[in-house]
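RECORD TYPE: inverse folding
INPUT: C-alpha cells
STRUCTURE:
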C-alpha cells in the first residue's frame, strides 16, 4: 500500500467521519478522561520521568521485535504517528497507571477478598441449540454414550466458532456467567453433564473440565485495578460535567 501520510486529510474530515460513524462521543469522552488524569496527577504530585518513558518504549520495541531504530521509525510512519506522538501516548499511559496505583493499590486486595467467589474460574465446555426437545435428546444420547459431548458440540452447536472448538469456552469467571447458570455450574462435579438450561441464546448443555480456585495473580490484580480506576474516571467525569452545567436556580 502506498504511503497514506502523503494524502492530506483535513481535521474537519476526521471529525465528520467520527460523527457519521457514531464514534465522536467515545473519542470526546477519552479526551476528557485524559484531562481528569492530568489534573488529579498534578494535584497529587505524580509525574513521569524521561527514563520511565524510554524504558516503556524499549519494552514495546522488544514486544514488537523492532530491533533497529529504523524499524521503529518505519513502524511509527506506517501508523501515521511521529516519535513525539508515540512518546506522548506512552506518557499518558504511564501517568494513568501511576495514578491508578496511587488511588487504588491498597484497595485491590480487599476487593478481591470481598468478592473472592466471583473470581473463581471454571474450564468450561458448552453446547447451545435452539430447541428444548433437541437439547433433551442430546442430553440422553451423551448420557448413554451414543455420542460424546465434544462430537455433539462439533456437529450441533448453533455457533460456528464453538463448533470448531468442540464446545470449548476456555477459562470462565463465575461473574461472567448469569447468576442462575453459575449457581448450577459451580455446584456440579467435573465431567458431569449439566442441562438443558434455558437463556435468551437458546438451550445449553454444560460440562466442567476443571475448577480453578480464585488467586490474586498479577493479571487479576491489574484487572481489578483497571476496573476500579475506570469507575472512578466515569464518576469524576460525571462530576465535571455537572459542575460545568449552568445553574438554573
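DESIGNED SEQUENCE:
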Amino acid at each position: 500500500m502506498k504511503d497514506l501520510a502523503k494524502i492530506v486529510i483535513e481535521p474537519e474530515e476526521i471529525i465528520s467521519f467520527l460523527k457519521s460513524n457514531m464514534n465522536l462521543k467515545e473519542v470526546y469522552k477519552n479526551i476528557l478522561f485524559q484531562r481528569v488524569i492530568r489534573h488529579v496527577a498534578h494535584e497529587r504530585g505524580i509525574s513521569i520521568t524521561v527514563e520511565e518513558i524510554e524504558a516503556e518504549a524499549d519494552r514495546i520495541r522488544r514486544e514488537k521485535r523492532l530491533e533497529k531504530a529504523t524499524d521503529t521509525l518505519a513502524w511509527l510512519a506506517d501508523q501515521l504517528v511521529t516519535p513525539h506522538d508515540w512518546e506522548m501516548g506512552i506518557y499518558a499511559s504511564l501517568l494513568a497507571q501511576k495514578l491508578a496505583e496511587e488511588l487504588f493499590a491498597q484497595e485491590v486486595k480487599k476487593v478481591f477478598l470481598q468478592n473472592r467467589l466471583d473470581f473463581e474460574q471454571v474450564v468450561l465446555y458448552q453446547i447451545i441449540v435452539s430447541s428444548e426437545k433437541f437439547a433433551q435428546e442430546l442430553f440422553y444420547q451423551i448420557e448413554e454414550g451414543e455420542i460424546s459431548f465434544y462430537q455433539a458440540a462439533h456437529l450441533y452447536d448453533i455457533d460456528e466458532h464453538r463448533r470448531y472448538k468442540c464446545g470449548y469456552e476456555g477459562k470462565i469467571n463465575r461473574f461472567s456467567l448469569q447468576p442462575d447458570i453459575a449457581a448450577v455450574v459451580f455446584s456440579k462435579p467435573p465431567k458431569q453433564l449439566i442441562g438443558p438450561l434455558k437463556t435468551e441464546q437458546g438451550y445449553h448443555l454444560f460440562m466442567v473440565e476443571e475448577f480453578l480456585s480464585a488467586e490474586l495473580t498479577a493479571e487479576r490484580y491489574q484487572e481489578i485495578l483497571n476496573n476500579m480506576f475506570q469507575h472512578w474516571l466515569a464518576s469524576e467525569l460525571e462530576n465535571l460535567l455537572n459542575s460545568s452545567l449552568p445553574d438554573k436556580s
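NOTES: The first helix runs from residue 11 to 20.
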